[in-house]
Design brief:
Length: about 220
């Protein structure tokens, strides 16, 4: 039996809506294929001419890419293109936009070890206490990856030092496991809790001891 035009249209609309939801679209923002918006290519390349052309195009600087809900600012952060970041912010880019994993451009920059990009975003200023789907903060990414300059910048901008991931880990737990002595020292000096425990009851000292990080463990006693 043939489907009626009304049923076909309804099914098509339903499929499109479900697809958009699945791809992490954000209410109130445009969702596009990246190639249709010049800001994405400009953010990736950091080329001045491309950035100027994107600015002149009138394209939405806060568009979310259909596949993973990245914005141009996420792309610039991933690539570490500081000039692109500054241009995007000057043109009204949302510094706290989130992708399909609820990660901000700052989280992406920290995850990719793009320190200069991260500091430019911190200075925007960004909200340092936003969390992704696992309740990770940008500070956790920076502490895990040993990005001392970024950690210090977040401390100066009053980031929450004791935020806990879903498993109870703090930035100090991450730094302790990885043996980042200077980051542990910076977090401790700024007042980060030494006694917060994860779901298994472990403090940062316990993590350092288990990971055979004696220098870090000595700092955390």
């Amino acid at each position: 039996m043939k489907s009626s035009p009304t049923v076909i249209i309804a099914a098509t609309v339903s499929t499109l809506v479900l697809g958009a939801c699945h791809q992490g679209s954000r209410p109130g923002t445009s969702v596009v294929v990246a190639t249709s918006n010049p800001w994405f290519a400009a953010a990736s390349s950091g080329d001045a001419a491309s950035l100027n052309a994107a600015a002149a195009s009138g394209a939405d600087v806060n568009a979310h890419e259909l596949h993973d809900s990245n914005t141009p600012l996420h792309v610039a952060a991933f690539a570490g293109n500081v000039e692109a970041i500054r241009t995007l912010l000057a043109k009204g880019a949302n510094v706290n936009a989130t992708d399909e994993d609820d990660r901000t451009p700052l989280m992406i920059a920290c995850h990719r070890r793009q320190n200069a990009a991260a500091i430019a975003i911190i200075d925007a200023p960004a909200n340092l206490d936003l969390r992704d789907r696992e309740h990770q903060t940008a500070l956790m990414f920076a502490a895990k990856n040993g990005e001392l300059d970024v950690v210090q910048a977040m401390i100066q901008h009053k980031a929450n030092l004791d935020a806990q991931r879903t498993d109870g880990w703090t930035a100090l737990h991450f730094a302790a496991r990885e043996g980042h002595t200077e980051i542990v020292r910076a977090l401790k000096g700024a007042g980060a809790s030494l006694t917060l425990r994860d779901r298994r009851g472990r403090t940062p000292f316990d993590i350092a001891t288990g990971a055979k990080r004696p220098d870090v463990a000595a700092l955390l006693k």
